[in-house]
Amino acid sequence: MNYYLLHFFSDKQSRKPAVIRQILSNKKTSSSLYWGMRYQLLNYLNVIPTLNTEKFNMAIKKLIQKDLLIHNDNELLLSEKGIEMKNKFDECHYKLDHPELFLKINYSLWNALMLLMIQVSSEYSYQNKKYYVASNNLQAQFLVKQWINKFGFEQLKTEVKDCLMAFLKQQDELKADIFSQKLIGHDYSGLSNDQIAHHYNLNTLDVDIIFHDLAVQFAYFILSKKDHLSLLVQKSMLSGIFSDTIKQTKELFDSGLSLKQIVTERKLKISTIQEHIEILAIIEKNFPYNKFINENEVEYLDNLYQGNIDKWQFNKMNEDEMNISFFKFRLFCIMRSHDEQRTK
To answer: What's this model's pTM, rounded to 2 decimal places?
Structure first.
């Protein structure tokens, strides 16, 4: 994993490793999402949901010890040696084609569902009823049984075969082979990452990336078909970047309620609702900033803050000149960040 993490650092922008870890593992706070936006890494939310903090920190430490990352104001930059290693690594290894798809799927559950439904349909086609199931995930086992009770084994066999064959035809031949060889079926227990890597002269990380990437793409492919099988995939889908509680705040905000009215309606602290609003501003392209920051405040902030947005500090403000809260300051930073990205 060590060199793979270099992909998330820059030689021009100092970055906080904790933010990168939070993005990869889908820890969504207003702060982590703000800095994820600043780093342009929001597409990588939930790519490694089981990322271990201790192992991540150890990997970062090793990159620093090898002079691939260097400290800069308590953050990290790619060194010249790090840039060279990153470019070399990128040339030799696969990257996720669609990291943005991981945000809306519970990969662990979907992987179990996918392996089970393919195995069960394969065993059924050979009329075999005695076999060890591919996954010990009890939720996945229940969901597959529930689906079969409603639609039947024959329907499962037909839809799995049709979807899988159509999906694989659209993929790069090598990637399709690697993906297929990790699946489980009748008299076939699937190959390990090590076995596949050895056969194709690849790194095990490449095998893992290819399989994860195609597994998630396969889920969205099935959903696009809108067949009965899509109902099974839907069981593994997540709410996306907005949690249920943020969605409730968004509905009230979209209906025209003010900040105070939302706080009253939801019976939550104003700081909590403000955090929800910040997250909405980070994600939504046409966020109405003027509902929270007036023209005079924007003009004042524009005069006070110029240059690198990453370096803007709230304590730079003179409270005697204008009473601007951190909430308004953060919204201003988000607004100017979006303006900056649109001009690039």
So the answer is: 0.91
